Amino acid sequence: MNENEIVQKLKTLTTELYFMSESDYPFEVFNWGILNDEEIKCKILSTHNPDSTLIALKTSDLFEKIIRNLKITEESVSISIAKRYELLFDFIKTNEFETRVYKCGGIEIDVYILIVMPSKIVLGLKTISIET
After folding, report:
1. 3-130 architecture in CATH?
2. Which of 11, 14, 93, 132 counts the most CB atoms within 10 A of its CB?
């Protein structure tokens, strides 16, 4: 799969899917082009306060927590949303992309789900988590 196909698939999988925290935010799909590890971190930090900290998470931990929390309620709407997150996570896992998750910010925290292709092209999703 090339980067354009991946971007289109991510857009399809995240249409009307929201990251739920104390508020609900949509996902923004992006293609940052070719970046190395340091450039990725600098790109994220450049949009935040100089004293911001970049927190790395395991991709599986993020998705498993979201899916588990949605399924706990046993409500049909939550279960259907959990299935959409499972499809998104399966797409990322099945294609065996190198993935990373970073969080950065204070109360309004930017969440970046990155896919690094073998060519070092960085694609991904950005959303916001409100954590007070």
Report:
1. 3-Layer(aba) Sandwich (3.40)
2. 14
